[in-house]
Write a sequence for this structure.
């Protein structure tokens, strides 16, 4: 039975939409981070605005890395390349980007404690992706061992 690739196609479309949303967020990053500083963090000092703006833009750099990796992973899946070292490499990039986002958000908690929540979410997501990566690594190893016995 042939696998239906519609879910992969829709996932790729959603990933492209998210990349576009991150791009739009980059365009308005200064305005949004200033708003966050003034309204949510209730801080109007230059340090807080600059720190939260830096956190914003470094966070979007990580988001691009994650989304591009997701797109490449979905492309591999659509080509029936599933249990492959390239895919675990893409997951490794995602984990590193999530940990970097968590670190940047943790540093941003100097200006606004709300970024510490974002840091925890990023770490939780890194844990999930890391677990999936371990499962893929184990499946690849088992597949390679099975190929050697045949």
């Amino acid at each position: 039975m042939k696998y239906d690739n519609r879910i992969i196609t829709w996932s790729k479309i959603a990933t492209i939409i998210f990349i576009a949303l991150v791009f739009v967020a980059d365009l308005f990053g200064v305005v949004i981070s200033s708003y966050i500083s003034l309204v949510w963090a209730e801080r109007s000092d230059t340090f807080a605005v600059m720190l939260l703006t830096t956190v914003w833009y470094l966070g979007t750099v990580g988001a691009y890395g994650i989304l591009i990796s997701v797109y490449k992973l979905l492309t591999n899946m659509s080509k029936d390349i599933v249990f492959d070292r390239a895919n675990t490499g893409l997951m490794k990039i995602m984990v590193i980007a999530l940990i970097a986002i968590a670190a940047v958000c943790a540093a941003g908690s100097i200006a606004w404690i709300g970024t510490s929540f974002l840091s925890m979410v990023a770490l939780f997501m890194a844990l999930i992706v890391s677990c999936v990566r371990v499962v893929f690594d184990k499946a690849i190893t088992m597949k390679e061992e099975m190929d050697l016995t045949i």
Summary: The two ends are 25 Å apart (CA to CA). The chain is about 85% helix and 0% strand. Residues 6-149 form one domain. The chain has one domain: 6-149.
